[in-house]
Protein backbone atom coordinates (compact mmCIF):
# COMPACT_ATOMS: atom_id res chain seq x y z
CA UNK A 1 0.00 0.00 0.00
CA UNK A 2 2.92 2.29 0.70
CA UNK A 3 4.10 1.63 -2.84
CA UNK A 4 0.67 2.22 -4.38
CA UNK A 5 2.16 4.81 -6.70
CA UNK A 6 4.50 2.23 -8.15
CA UNK A 7 2.13 -0.69 -8.45
CA UNK A 8 -0.83 1.30 -9.67
CA UNK A 9 -0.59 1.97 -13.39
CA UNK A 10 -2.42 5.30 -13.29
CA UNK A 11 -3.32 8.27 -11.20
CA UNK A 12 -6.48 7.24 -9.32
CA UNK A 13 -8.20 10.53 -10.08
CA UNK A 14 -7.40 10.58 -13.77
CA UNK A 15 -10.56 10.27 -15.78
CA UNK A 16 -11.12 8.69 -19.16
CA UNK A 17 -14.55 9.95 -20.09
CA UNK A 18 -14.60 7.90 -23.28
CA UNK A 19 -14.56 4.66 -21.37
CA UNK A 20 -16.95 4.62 -18.39
CA UNK A 21 -17.81 1.27 -16.84
CA UNK A 22 -15.29 -0.61 -18.90
CA UNK A 23 -15.16 -4.28 -17.90
CA UNK A 24 -11.79 -5.72 -16.89
CA UNK A 25 -9.61 -6.30 -19.93
CA UNK A 26 -8.35 -9.76 -20.63
CA UNK A 27 -4.67 -10.35 -21.06
CA UNK A 28 -3.82 -12.66 -23.91
CA UNK A 29 -0.79 -14.66 -24.85
CA UNK A 30 -2.26 -16.10 -28.02
CA UNK A 31 -3.93 -13.79 -30.56
CA UNK A 32 -7.08 -14.52 -32.56
CA UNK A 33 -5.04 -15.90 -35.39
CA UNK A 34 -3.39 -18.46 -33.11
CA UNK A 35 0.02 -16.81 -32.96
CA UNK A 36 1.82 -17.01 -29.65
CA UNK A 37 3.25 -13.82 -28.14
CA UNK A 38 5.88 -13.91 -25.38
CA UNK A 39 4.62 -10.59 -24.02
CA UNK A 40 1.03 -10.57 -22.73
CA UNK A 41 -1.16 -8.10 -24.54
CA UNK A 42 -4.70 -6.73 -24.45
CA UNK A 43 -6.95 -5.87 -27.31
CA UNK A 44 -8.40 -2.43 -27.68
CA UNK A 45 -12.08 -1.91 -26.93
CA UNK A 46 -14.92 -0.32 -28.81
CA UNK A 47 -18.58 0.18 -28.06
CA UNK A 48 -20.79 -2.55 -29.36
CA UNK A 49 -23.09 -1.46 -32.18
CA UNK A 50 -26.27 0.17 -30.88
CA UNK A 51 -25.22 0.22 -27.24
CA UNK A 52 -23.84 2.86 -24.94
CA UNK A 53 -22.32 0.73 -22.24
CA UNK A 54 -21.51 -2.62 -23.79
CA UNK A 55 -17.98 -3.04 -24.99
CA UNK A 56 -16.32 -5.62 -27.14
CA UNK A 57 -12.74 -6.33 -27.97
CA UNK A 58 -11.39 -4.51 -30.97
CA UNK A 59 -9.05 -7.05 -32.41
CA UNK A 60 -7.40 -4.64 -34.76
CA UNK A 61 -5.57 -2.94 -31.95
CA UNK A 62 -3.22 -4.62 -29.50
CA UNK A 63 -1.59 -3.10 -26.46
CA UNK A 64 1.39 -5.18 -25.36
CA UNK A 65 1.96 -5.02 -21.61
CA UNK A 66 5.23 -3.33 -20.69
CA UNK A 67 6.95 -3.48 -17.35
CA UNK A 68 8.59 -0.55 -15.59
CA UNK A 69 7.06 2.08 -17.84
CA UNK A 70 6.88 5.82 -17.34
CA UNK A 71 3.45 7.20 -16.60
CA UNK A 72 1.67 9.55 -14.23
CA UNK A 73 3.99 11.18 -11.76
CA UNK A 74 3.79 10.34 -8.07
CA UNK A 75 6.06 10.52 -5.08
CA UNK A 76 7.85 7.33 -4.10
CA UNK A 77 7.28 6.81 -0.34
CA UNK A 78 5.80 10.28 -0.39
CA UNK A 79 9.24 11.79 -0.87
CA UNK A 80 11.02 10.97 -4.10
CA UNK A 81 9.19 12.14 -7.20
CA UNK A 82 9.00 9.40 -9.79
CA UNK A 83 7.19 8.42 -12.95
CA UNK A 84 8.10 4.77 -12.92
CA UNK A 85 5.27 2.21 -12.76
CA UNK A 86 5.41 -1.54 -12.45
CA UNK A 87 3.46 -2.06 -15.64
CA UNK A 88 1.44 -0.21 -18.23
CA UNK A 89 1.05 0.14 -21.96
CA UNK A 90 2.68 2.66 -24.18
CA UNK A 91 -0.26 3.77 -26.25
CA UNK A 92 -3.70 3.44 -24.69
CA UNK A 93 -4.85 2.82 -21.12
CA UNK A 94 -5.28 -0.69 -19.86
CA UNK A 95 -7.93 -1.61 -17.24
CA UNK A 96 -7.20 -4.86 -15.46
CA UNK A 97 -10.05 -4.40 -13.00
CA UNK A 98 -12.24 -2.32 -15.26
CA UNK A 99 -13.17 1.30 -14.83
CA UNK A 100 -15.83 3.19 -12.95
CA UNK A 101 -18.44 5.70 -14.05
CA UNK A 102 -15.81 8.35 -14.74
CA UNK A 103 -13.51 5.95 -16.53
CA UNK A 104 -11.04 5.86 -13.68
CA UNK A 105 -8.87 2.78 -13.33
CA UNK A 106 -10.32 0.56 -10.60
CA UNK A 107 -7.01 -1.15 -9.86
CA UNK A 108 -5.26 2.15 -9.23
CA UNK A 109 -8.16 3.31 -7.14
CA UNK A 110 -8.12 0.11 -5.14
CA UNK A 111 -4.43 0.40 -4.38
CA UNK A 112 -4.54 4.08 -3.51
CA UNK A 113 -7.76 3.57 -1.58
CA UNK A 114 -6.12 0.85 0.44
CA UNK A 115 -3.51 3.33 1.46
CA UNK A 116 -6.12 5.63 2.91
CA UNK A 117 -8.17 2.88 4.51
CA UNK A 118 -5.32 0.93 6.05
CA UNK A 119 -3.78 4.13 7.31
CA UNK A 120 -7.10 5.05 8.86
CA UNK A 121 -7.17 1.66 10.54
CA UNK A 122 -3.64 1.90 11.89
CA UNK A 123 -4.05 5.46 13.07
CA UNK A 124 -7.35 4.78 14.77
CA UNK A 125 -6.07 1.62 16.41
CA UNK A 126 -2.93 3.27 17.72
CA UNK A 127 -4.86 6.19 19.18
CA UNK A 128 -7.22 3.75 20.86
CA UNK A 129 -4.50 1.50 22.16
CA UNK A 130 -2.40 4.33 23.48
CA UNK A 131 -5.32 5.84 25.33
CA UNK A 132 -6.52 2.48 26.56
CA UNK A 133 -3.06 1.57 27.78
CA UNK A 134 -2.61 4.80 29.72
CA UNK A 135 -6.05 4.62 31.30
CA UNK A 136 -5.72 0.91 32.06
CA UNK A 137 -2.31 1.34 33.67
CA UNK A 138 -3.48 4.24 35.79
CA UNK A 139 -6.67 2.51 36.87
CA UNK A 140 -5.08 -0.85 37.58
CA UNK A 141 -1.92 0.36 39.23
CA UNK A 142 -3.15 3.14 41.42
CA UNK A 143 -6.56 1.64 42.16
CA UNK A 144 -8.87 3.29 44.64
CA UNK A 145 -11.01 6.21 43.52
CA UNK A 146 -9.05 6.66 40.29
CA UNK A 147 -9.91 3.12 39.33
CA UNK A 148 -13.59 3.63 40.12
CA UNK A 149 -13.76 6.89 38.22
CA UNK A 150 -11.97 5.62 35.12
CA UNK A 151 -13.89 2.36 34.95
CA UNK A 152 -17.31 4.00 35.31
CA UNK A 153 -16.24 6.35 32.53
CA UNK A 154 -15.20 3.36 30.42
CA UNK A 155 -18.59 1.75 30.93
CA UNK A 156 -20.23 4.95 29.80
CA UNK A 157 -18.16 4.96 26.64
CA UNK A 158 -18.88 1.29 25.99
CA UNK A 159 -22.57 2.08 26.08
CA UNK A 160 -22.29 4.78 23.40
CA UNK A 161 -23.69 3.80 20.00
CA UNK A 162 -20.67 4.78 17.96
CA UNK A 163 -22.29 4.81 14.52
CA UNK A 164 -24.85 7.40 15.54
CA UNK A 165 -22.22 9.28 17.39
CA UNK A 166 -20.29 9.49 14.15
CA UNK A 167 -23.29 10.71 12.23
CA UNK A 168 -23.81 13.38 14.83
CA UNK A 169 -20.16 14.27 14.75
CA UNK A 170 -20.06 14.50 10.96
CA UNK A 171 -23.16 16.65 10.99
CA UNK A 172 -21.61 18.83 13.61
CA UNK A 173 -18.39 19.39 11.68
CA UNK A 174 -18.56 22.31 9.31
CA UNK A 175 -18.47 21.34 5.65
CA UNK A 176 -15.87 23.99 5.11
CA UNK A 177 -13.28 21.83 6.85
CA UNK A 178 -10.93 20.35 4.28
CA UNK A 179 -11.88 16.82 3.24
CA UNK A 180 -8.75 15.17 4.57
CA UNK A 181 -8.80 17.15 7.80
CA UNK A 182 -12.37 16.10 8.44
CA UNK A 183 -11.41 12.52 7.79
CA UNK A 184 -8.49 12.60 10.20
CA UNK A 185 -10.64 14.22 12.79
CA UNK A 186 -13.20 11.46 12.51
CA UNK A 187 -10.61 8.73 12.78
CA UNK A 188 -9.05 10.34 15.83
CA UNK A 189 -12.44 10.77 17.44
CA UNK A 190 -13.21 7.14 16.66
CA UNK A 191 -9.96 6.22 18.33
CA UNK A 192 -10.80 8.28 21.37
CA UNK A 193 -14.23 6.70 21.67
CA UNK A 194 -12.82 3.19 21.47
CA UNK A 195 -10.41 3.29 24.41
CA UNK A 196 -12.77 1.69 26.90
CA UNK A 197 -12.37 -1.97 25.93
CA UNK A 198 -8.56 -2.09 25.78
CA UNK A 199 -8.43 -0.03 28.96
CA UNK A 200 -10.52 -2.58 30.82
CA UNK A 201 -8.39 -5.46 29.55
CA UNK A 202 -5.13 -3.72 30.41
CA UNK A 203 -6.46 -2.91 33.85
CA UNK A 204 -7.17 -6.57 34.48
CA UNK A 205 -3.66 -7.55 33.49
CA UNK A 206 -2.14 -4.81 35.61
CA UNK A 207 -4.18 -5.85 38.63
CA UNK A 208 -2.74 -9.34 38.54
CA UNK A 209 0.74 -8.20 37.49
CA UNK A 210 1.22 -5.83 40.39
CA UNK A 211 0.51 -8.60 42.88
CA UNK A 212 3.19 -10.83 41.42
CA UNK A 213 5.89 -11.66 43.92
CA UNK A 214 8.75 -10.20 41.97
CA UNK A 215 6.88 -6.95 41.56
CA UNK A 216 6.22 -6.76 45.28
CA UNK A 217 9.82 -7.72 45.93
CA UNK A 218 11.04 -4.90 43.69
CA UNK A 219 8.76 -2.52 45.51
CA UNK A 220 10.18 -3.83 48.75
CA UNK A 221 13.64 -2.86 47.56
CA UNK A 222 12.49 0.68 47.02
CA UNK A 223 11.59 0.68 43.33
CA UNK A 224 9.71 3.80 42.22
CA UNK A 225 6.26 3.63 40.65
CA UNK A 226 7.51 4.75 37.25
CA UNK A 227 10.14 2.05 37.18
CA UNK A 228 7.71 -0.66 38.24
CA UNK A 229 5.19 0.39 35.63
CA UNK A 230 7.74 0.50 32.86
CA UNK A 231 9.87 -2.50 33.67
CA UNK A 232 7.53 -4.91 35.41
CA UNK A 233 4.01 -4.14 34.36
CA UNK A 234 4.20 -2.82 30.82
CA UNK A 235 5.75 -6.03 29.40
CA UNK A 236 2.89 -8.05 30.87
CA UNK A 237 0.36 -6.07 28.88
CA UNK A 238 2.05 -6.72 25.53
CA UNK A 239 0.02 -9.77 24.61
CA UNK A 240 -3.27 -8.08 25.41
CA UNK A 241 -2.23 -5.08 23.34
CA UNK A 242 -1.31 -7.29 20.40
CA UNK A 243 -4.63 -9.10 20.52
CA UNK A 244 -6.43 -5.82 20.67
CA UNK A 245 -4.38 -4.40 17.81
CA UNK A 246 -5.24 -7.34 15.58
CA UNK A 247 -8.89 -6.85 16.33
CA UNK A 248 -8.96 -3.08 16.20
CA UNK A 249 -7.17 -2.44 12.91
CA UNK A 250 -9.71 -4.29 10.73
CA UNK A 251 -12.45 -2.81 12.87
CA UNK A 252 -11.28 0.70 12.10
CA UNK A 253 -10.82 -0.08 8.42
CA UNK A 254 -14.39 -1.30 8.40
CA UNK A 255 -15.48 1.81 10.26
CA UNK A 256 -13.84 3.96 7.62
CA UNK A 257 -15.48 1.89 4.90
CA UNK A 258 -18.88 2.20 6.53
CA UNK A 259 -18.52 5.94 6.71
CA UNK A 260 -17.27 6.32 3.18
CA UNK A 261 -19.93 3.97 1.91
CA UNK A 262 -22.50 6.25 3.46
CA UNK A 263 -20.72 9.24 2.01
CA UNK A 264 -19.55 10.53 5.38
CA UNK A 265 -15.94 9.55 5.18
CA UNK A 266 -13.25 10.46 2.73
CA UNK A 267 -14.76 12.68 0.08
CA UNK A 268 -14.24 12.11 -3.65
CA UNK A 269 -12.05 12.24 -5.60
CA UNK A 270 -9.74 10.78 -2.92
CA UNK A 271 -10.19 7.03 -3.25
CA UNK A 272 -10.79 4.80 -0.28
CA UNK A 273 -12.18 1.31 -0.01
CA UNK A 274 -15.44 2.64 1.25
CA UNK A 275 -15.71 5.02 -1.70
CA UNK A 276 -15.05 2.21 -4.12
CA UNK A 277 -17.89 0.24 -2.70
CA UNK A 278 -20.25 3.15 -2.39
CA UNK A 279 -21.00 3.06 -6.13
CA UNK A 280 -22.65 -0.28 -5.42
CA UNK A 281 -25.43 1.62 -3.73
CA UNK A 282 -26.92 2.20 -7.15
CA UNK A 283 -29.10 -0.62 -8.30
CA UNK A 284 -28.00 -0.33 -11.93
CA UNK A 285 -24.36 -0.73 -10.94
CA UNK A 286 -25.21 -3.65 -8.73
CA UNK A 287 -26.82 -5.66 -11.51
CA UNK A 288 -24.92 -4.53 -14.60
CA UNK A 289 -21.28 -4.06 -13.72
CA UNK A 290 -20.05 -7.12 -11.89
CA UNK A 291 -16.44 -5.97 -11.78
CA UNK A 292 -17.39 -3.26 -9.32
CA UNK A 293 -17.58 -6.03 -6.70
CA UNK A 294 -13.98 -7.00 -7.21
CA UNK A 295 -12.52 -4.66 -4.59
CA UNK A 296 -14.75 -6.26 -1.96
CA UNK A 297 -13.55 -9.71 -2.98
CA UNK A 298 -9.92 -8.67 -2.78
CA UNK A 299 -10.49 -7.18 0.66
CA UNK A 300 -11.59 -10.54 2.06
CA UNK A 301 -8.20 -12.27 1.81
CA UNK A 302 -6.61 -9.06 3.04
CA UNK A 303 -8.59 -9.16 6.30
CA UNK A 304 -8.09 -12.87 6.69
CA UNK A 305 -4.38 -12.46 6.17
CA UNK A 306 -4.28 -9.71 8.74
CA UNK A 307 -6.08 -11.78 11.35
CA UNK A 308 -3.75 -14.69 10.67
CA UNK A 309 -0.75 -12.45 11.12
CA UNK A 310 -2.25 -11.18 14.36
CA UNK A 311 -2.77 -14.59 15.89
CA UNK A 312 0.68 -15.71 14.82
CA UNK A 313 2.30 -12.65 16.40
CA UNK A 314 0.33 -13.22 19.53
CA UNK A 315 1.51 -16.78 19.86
CA UNK A 316 5.12 -15.80 19.40
CA UNK A 317 4.91 -12.92 21.85
CA UNK A 318 3.27 -14.93 24.61
CA UNK A 319 5.95 -14.70 27.30
CA UNK A 320 4.83 -17.60 29.47
CA UNK A 321 4.35 -20.13 26.76
CA UNK A 322 6.96 -22.83 26.73
CA UNK A 323 7.71 -24.63 23.51
CA UNK A 324 5.08 -25.32 20.91
CA UNK B 1 19.63 0.97 74.43
CA UNK B 2 16.90 2.29 72.22
CA UNK B 3 14.98 -0.04 69.99
CA UNK B 4 15.72 0.23 66.28
CA UNK B 5 12.40 -1.27 65.28
CA UNK B 6 9.31 -1.31 67.40
CA UNK B 7 6.00 -2.84 66.45
CA UNK B 8 2.96 -1.83 68.44
CA UNK B 9 -0.36 -3.59 68.32
CA UNK B 10 -0.11 -4.33 64.60
CA UNK B 11 -3.33 -5.61 63.05
CA UNK B 12 -3.92 -6.64 59.44
CA UNK B 13 -6.90 -8.48 58.04
CA UNK B 14 -7.66 -9.86 54.60
CA UNK B 15 -11.01 -9.73 52.94
CA UNK B 16 -11.68 -12.82 50.88
CA UNK B 17 -13.69 -12.73 47.70
CA UNK B 18 -16.81 -13.71 49.58
CA UNK B 19 -16.32 -10.77 51.91
CA UNK B 20 -15.18 -12.92 54.82
CA UNK B 21 -12.63 -11.17 57.01
CA UNK B 22 -9.56 -13.15 57.99
CA UNK B 23 -7.49 -11.60 60.73
CA UNK B 24 -3.93 -12.41 59.72
CA UNK B 25 -2.25 -10.30 62.39
CA UNK B 26 -4.16 -9.60 65.55
CA UNK B 27 -2.32 -7.23 67.81
CA UNK B 28 1.38 -7.97 67.41
CA UNK B 29 3.84 -6.06 69.56
CA UNK B 30 7.57 -6.47 69.91
CA UNK B 31 10.72 -4.44 69.65
CA UNK B 32 14.19 -5.07 68.29
CA UNK B 33 17.48 -3.83 69.67
CA UNK B 34 20.18 -2.90 67.17
CA UNK B 35 22.23 -5.93 66.15
CA UNK B 36 19.71 -8.38 67.48
CA UNK B 37 18.44 -11.41 65.59
CA UNK B 38 14.88 -12.36 66.26
CA UNK B 39 13.52 -15.67 65.06
CA UNK B 40 9.83 -15.80 64.26
CA UNK B 41 8.31 -19.25 64.52
CA UNK B 42 4.90 -20.34 63.39
CA UNK B 43 3.02 -22.79 61.24
CA UNK B 44 1.49 -22.02 57.87
CA UNK B 45 -1.22 -19.42 58.11
CA UNK B 46 -0.02 -18.05 61.41
CA UNK B 47 0.70 -14.66 59.85
CA UNK B 48 4.47 -14.92 59.36
CA UNK B 49 4.62 -13.62 55.82
CA UNK B 50 2.02 -10.98 56.52
CA UNK B 51 4.18 -9.80 59.38
CA UNK B 52 7.24 -9.63 57.13
CA UNK B 53 5.55 -7.60 54.41
CA UNK B 54 3.58 -5.41 56.80
CA UNK B 55 6.75 -4.08 58.34
CA UNK B 56 7.46 -2.42 54.97
CA UNK B 57 3.81 -1.65 54.26
CA UNK B 58 3.74 -4.02 51.29
CA UNK B 59 0.15 -5.07 51.70
CA UNK B 60 -1.81 -7.19 49.29
CA UNK B 61 -4.67 -5.43 47.54
CA UNK B 62 -7.24 -7.17 49.72
CA UNK B 63 -5.69 -6.15 53.04
CA UNK B 64 -8.16 -4.26 55.21
CA UNK B 65 -8.38 -2.90 58.75
CA UNK B 66 -4.71 -2.08 59.06
CA UNK B 67 -3.90 -0.53 62.40
CA UNK B 68 -1.10 -0.21 64.91
CA UNK B 69 2.32 1.18 64.21
CA UNK B 70 5.73 0.11 62.98
CA UNK B 71 8.31 2.49 64.41
CA UNK B 72 11.66 2.52 62.68
CA UNK B 73 14.08 4.83 64.45
CA UNK B 74 11.08 6.61 65.85
CA UNK B 75 9.30 7.05 62.50
CA UNK B 76 6.00 5.28 61.94
CA UNK B 77 6.28 3.47 58.62
CA UNK B 78 2.56 2.84 58.42
CA UNK B 79 1.93 6.59 58.40
CA UNK B 80 4.99 7.69 56.42
CA UNK B 81 4.67 9.48 53.09
CA UNK B 82 5.05 7.20 50.06
CA UNK B 83 8.32 8.74 48.92
CA UNK B 84 9.79 8.60 52.43
CA UNK B 85 8.89 4.95 52.60
CA UNK B 86 10.39 4.31 49.20
CA UNK B 87 13.70 5.67 50.44
CA UNK B 88 13.64 3.36 53.45
CA UNK B 89 12.66 0.20 51.58
CA UNK B 90 15.73 -1.59 50.37
CA UNK B 91 18.09 0.99 51.76
CA UNK B 92 17.53 0.93 55.52
CA UNK B 93 15.21 -2.04 55.82
CA UNK B 94 15.41 -4.90 53.35
CA UNK B 95 13.03 -7.76 52.90
CA UNK B 96 13.96 -11.12 51.43
CA UNK B 97 10.93 -12.76 49.94
CA UNK B 98 9.96 -16.31 50.64
CA UNK B 99 10.21 -17.84 47.17
CA UNK B 100 13.46 -17.01 45.39
CA UNK B 101 12.05 -18.53 42.22
CA UNK B 102 9.31 -15.94 41.90
CA UNK B 103 10.82 -12.95 43.67
CA UNK B 104 13.26 -12.20 40.85
CA UNK B 105 12.24 -10.57 37.61
CA UNK B 106 12.20 -13.41 35.08
CA UNK B 107 13.61 -11.49 32.12
CA UNK B 108 16.40 -9.43 33.64
CA UNK B 109 19.93 -10.65 34.33
CA UNK B 110 20.81 -11.18 37.99
CA UNK B 111 23.56 -8.56 38.01
CA UNK B 112 21.22 -5.99 36.57
CA UNK B 113 18.63 -6.70 39.24
CA UNK B 114 21.17 -6.04 41.96
CA UNK B 115 22.28 -2.90 40.15
CA UNK B 116 18.71 -1.64 39.94
CA UNK B 117 18.38 -1.69 43.70
CA UNK B 118 21.44 0.54 43.97
CA UNK B 119 20.17 2.77 41.19
CA UNK B 120 16.80 3.10 42.91
CA UNK B 121 18.59 4.60 45.89
CA UNK B 122 20.42 7.34 44.13
CA UNK B 123 23.57 5.65 42.88
CA UNK B 124 23.75 6.63 39.23
CA UNK B 125 27.40 6.60 38.28
CA UNK B 126 27.87 3.69 35.92
CA UNK B 127 31.26 2.56 37.06
CA UNK B 128 30.37 2.88 40.72
CA UNK B 129 27.29 0.76 40.12
CA UNK B 130 29.34 -1.89 38.37
CA UNK B 131 31.90 -1.92 41.12
CA UNK B 132 29.43 -2.12 43.96
CA UNK B 133 27.42 -4.86 42.24
CA UNK B 134 30.54 -6.93 41.78
CA UNK B 135 31.50 -6.31 45.38
CA UNK B 136 28.12 -7.38 46.73
CA UNK B 137 27.96 -10.49 44.57
CA UNK B 138 31.53 -11.25 45.54
CA UNK B 139 30.45 -11.44 49.16
CA UNK B 140 27.93 -14.13 48.36
CA UNK B 141 29.64 -16.13 45.65
CA UNK B 142 33.12 -17.31 44.87
CA UNK B 143 34.93 -14.75 42.77
CA UNK B 144 35.03 -16.84 39.60
CA UNK B 145 31.36 -17.72 40.00
CA UNK B 146 30.14 -14.19 40.63
CA UNK B 147 30.80 -12.97 37.10
CA UNK B 148 28.82 -15.77 35.55
CA UNK B 149 25.94 -15.35 38.00
CA UNK B 150 25.71 -11.66 37.22
CA UNK B 151 25.27 -12.44 33.55
CA UNK B 152 22.68 -15.17 34.10
CA UNK B 153 18.91 -14.97 34.00
CA UNK B 154 17.07 -16.26 37.06
CA UNK B 155 15.90 -19.42 35.32
CA UNK B 156 19.51 -20.39 34.68
CA UNK B 157 20.33 -20.35 38.39
CA UNK B 158 19.73 -22.95 41.08
CA UNK B 159 17.46 -22.28 44.03
CA UNK B 160 20.37 -21.56 46.33
CA UNK B 161 21.96 -19.21 43.81
CA UNK B 162 18.72 -17.35 43.31
CA UNK B 163 18.34 -17.02 47.05
CA UNK B 164 21.82 -15.49 47.20
CA UNK B 165 21.01 -13.07 44.43
CA UNK B 166 18.02 -11.99 46.49
CA UNK B 167 20.24 -11.58 49.50
CA UNK B 168 22.64 -9.56 47.36
CA UNK B 169 19.77 -7.29 46.38
CA UNK B 170 18.80 -6.96 50.01
CA UNK B 171 22.23 -6.03 51.33
CA UNK B 172 23.38 -3.96 48.34
CA UNK B 173 22.61 -0.64 49.98
CA UNK B 174 23.91 -1.69 53.38
CA UNK B 175 20.63 -1.74 55.30
CA UNK B 176 20.47 -1.79 59.06
CA UNK B 177 17.51 -4.14 59.31
CA UNK B 178 17.07 -7.31 57.28
CA UNK B 179 13.80 -9.21 57.25
CA UNK B 180 14.08 -12.72 55.88
CA UNK B 181 10.81 -14.51 55.20
CA UNK B 182 11.49 -18.24 55.28
CA UNK B 183 14.69 -17.80 53.31
CA UNK B 184 15.48 -21.49 53.52
CA UNK B 185 12.04 -23.04 53.11
CA UNK B 186 12.41 -24.03 49.47
CA UNK B 187 16.01 -25.22 49.67
CA UNK B 188 17.43 -28.65 50.33
CA UNK B 189 19.13 -29.26 53.71
CA UNK B 190 22.71 -28.67 52.53
CA UNK B 191 21.81 -25.46 50.80
CA UNK B 192 19.78 -24.46 53.84
CA UNK B 193 22.86 -24.78 56.00
CA UNK B 194 24.96 -22.86 53.48
CA UNK B 195 22.41 -20.08 53.31
CA UNK B 196 22.18 -19.93 57.07
CA UNK B 197 25.97 -19.64 57.08
CA UNK B 198 25.68 -16.69 54.72
CA UNK B 199 23.28 -14.97 57.10
CA UNK B 200 25.62 -15.59 60.01
CA UNK B 201 28.55 -14.09 58.17
CA UNK B 202 26.53 -11.09 57.08
CA UNK B 203 25.33 -10.50 60.58
CA UNK B 204 28.87 -10.49 61.85
CA UNK B 205 30.36 -8.37 59.09
CA UNK B 206 27.57 -5.85 58.71
CA UNK B 207 26.14 -5.75 62.20
CA UNK B 208 22.68 -6.43 60.81
CA UNK B 209 19.56 -6.44 62.89
CA UNK B 210 17.52 -9.34 61.61
CA UNK B 211 14.07 -10.79 61.70
CA UNK B 212 14.38 -14.38 60.62
CA UNK B 213 11.09 -16.02 59.86
CA UNK B 214 10.88 -19.79 59.70
CA UNK B 215 8.77 -22.77 60.62
CA UNK B 216 11.79 -24.81 61.60
CA UNK B 217 12.94 -24.23 65.20
CA UNK B 218 16.14 -26.16 64.53
CA UNK B 219 17.48 -23.33 62.38
CA UNK B 220 17.19 -20.84 65.20
CA UNK B 221 19.21 -22.79 67.75
CA UNK B 222 22.53 -21.04 67.73
CA UNK B 223 21.53 -18.17 65.48
CA UNK B 224 18.67 -16.22 67.00
CA UNK B 225 18.96 -14.11 70.14
CA UNK B 226 15.26 -14.07 70.77
CA UNK B 227 12.34 -16.09 69.50
CA UNK B 228 8.78 -15.00 68.88
CA UNK B 229 6.16 -17.69 68.46
CA UNK B 230 3.20 -16.73 66.33
CA UNK B 231 -0.14 -18.49 66.42
CA UNK B 232 -3.25 -17.33 64.54
CA UNK B 233 -1.82 -13.85 64.18
CA UNK B 234 -1.05 -13.48 67.88
CA UNK B 235 2.17 -13.59 69.84
CA UNK B 236 1.85 -16.64 72.07
CA UNK B 237 5.38 -16.67 73.40
CA UNK B 238 8.30 -14.30 73.22
CA UNK B 239 11.63 -14.63 74.94
CA UNK B 240 15.33 -15.32 74.77
CA UNK B 241 16.12 -18.07 72.30
CA UNK B 242 17.73 -20.25 74.96
CA UNK B 243 14.68 -20.05 77.23
CA UNK B 244 12.17 -20.87 74.56
CA UNK B 245 14.09 -23.52 72.69
CA UNK B 246 15.17 -25.32 75.84
CA UNK B 247 12.13 -24.89 78.02
CA UNK B 248 9.12 -23.75 76.05
CA UNK B 249 6.24 -22.66 78.24
CA UNK B 250 3.23 -22.29 75.99
CA UNK B 251 1.42 -25.54 75.21
CA UNK B 252 1.48 -24.65 71.51
CA UNK B 253 5.24 -24.13 71.45
CA UNK B 254 5.73 -27.39 73.23
CA UNK B 255 3.45 -29.26 70.88
CA UNK B 256 5.25 -27.66 67.93
CA UNK B 257 8.64 -28.85 69.16
CA UNK B 258 7.35 -32.34 69.87
CA UNK B 259 6.04 -32.77 66.36
CA UNK B 260 9.47 -32.43 64.80
CA UNK B 261 11.07 -35.71 63.86
CA UNK B 262 14.34 -36.29 65.68
CA UNK B 263 17.18 -37.13 63.33
CA UNK B 264 18.29 -40.10 65.44
CA UNK B 265 15.77 -41.66 67.70
CA UNK B 266 17.53 -43.40 70.53
CA UNK B 267 14.43 -45.19 71.68
CA UNK B 268 14.23 -48.78 70.64
CA UNK B 269 10.61 -48.88 69.62
CA UNK B 270 10.81 -45.73 67.55
CA UNK B 271 9.67 -47.41 64.37
CA UNK B 272 6.31 -48.22 65.86
CA UNK B 273 5.70 -44.93 67.51
CA UNK B 274 3.90 -42.19 65.62
CA UNK B 275 5.17 -38.66 65.75
CA UNK B 276 2.89 -36.54 67.91
CA UNK B 277 0.85 -34.01 65.94
CA UNK B 278 -1.32 -31.09 66.87
CA UNK B 279 -4.84 -32.03 65.98
CA UNK B 280 -7.13 -29.61 64.20
CA UNK B 281 -5.92 -26.56 62.31
CA UNK B 282 -5.42 -22.88 62.86
CA UNK B 283 -7.91 -21.61 60.30
CA UNK B 284 -9.93 -18.63 61.34
CA UNK B 285 -13.17 -20.58 60.99
CA UNK B 286 -12.08 -23.02 63.66
CA UNK B 287 -11.02 -20.36 66.12
CA UNK B 288 -13.22 -19.77 69.12
CA UNK B 289 -15.18 -16.54 69.19
CA UNK B 290 -13.99 -15.73 72.67
CA UNK B 291 -11.14 -17.19 74.60
CA UNK B 292 -7.66 -18.40 73.75
CA UNK B 293 -7.21 -19.09 70.02
CA UNK B 294 -5.34 -22.30 70.75
CA UNK B 295 -7.97 -23.58 73.16
CA UNK B 296 -9.69 -26.06 70.76
CA UNK B 297 -6.40 -27.83 70.05
CA UNK B 298 -4.73 -27.37 73.39
CA UNK B 299 -3.87 -30.52 75.31
CA UNK B 300 -3.77 -28.59 78.56
CA UNK B 301 -6.95 -26.55 78.22
CA UNK B 302 -8.77 -25.30 81.28
CA UNK B 303 -12.25 -23.92 81.90
CA UNK B 304 -11.10 -20.33 81.83
CA UNK B 305 -9.54 -20.69 78.35
CA UNK B 306 -12.98 -20.79 76.78
CA UNK B 307 -14.25 -17.60 78.28
CA UNK B 308 -11.60 -15.03 77.54
CA UNK B 309 -8.25 -14.51 75.88
CA UNK B 310 -5.16 -14.74 78.05
CA UNK B 311 -2.92 -11.73 78.35
CA UNK B 312 0.88 -11.82 78.15
CA UNK B 313 2.43 -13.11 81.36
CA UNK B 314 6.04 -12.60 82.32
CA UNK B 315 7.57 -15.90 83.37
CA UNK B 316 10.97 -14.31 83.68
CA UNK B 317 12.47 -10.95 82.85
CA UNK B 318 13.07 -11.88 79.26
CA UNK B 319 10.30 -14.39 78.67
CA UNK B 320 6.59 -13.74 78.20
CA UNK B 321 3.84 -16.23 77.50
CA UNK B 322 0.21 -15.81 76.63
CA UNK B 323 -1.34 -18.58 78.68
CA UNK B 324 -3.50 -18.81 81.82
CA UNK B 325 -1.30 -21.57 83.23
CA UNK B 326 1.33 -19.02 84.14
CA UNK B 327 -0.98 -16.34 85.42
CA UNK B 328 -0.46 -15.84 89.11
CA UNK B 329 -3.75 -16.26 90.93
Structural class of chain A comes to alpha+beta
Question: Helical element count of chain B?
Answer: 10
Task: Report the total helices of chain A.
Answer: 12
The tally of beta strands of chain A, per DSSP, is 5
Strand order of the largest sheet of chain B: 6-7-8-3-9-10-12-11
Strand order of the largest sheet of chain A: 1-2-3
Number of discrete domains of chain A: 2
Radius of gyration of chain B: 21 Å
Major sheet attributes of chain A: 3 strands, antiparallel
CATH class bucket of the largest domain in chain A: Mainly Alpha
**Percentage of helical residues of chain A?**
40-55%
Question: How many strands, which pairing sense, and closed or not: the largest β-sheet of chain B?
Answer: 8 strands, mixed
Q: Roughly what fraction of the amino acids of chain A lie in strands?
A: 5-15%
How much strand of chain B? 15-25%
Report the helical percentage of chain B: 25-40%
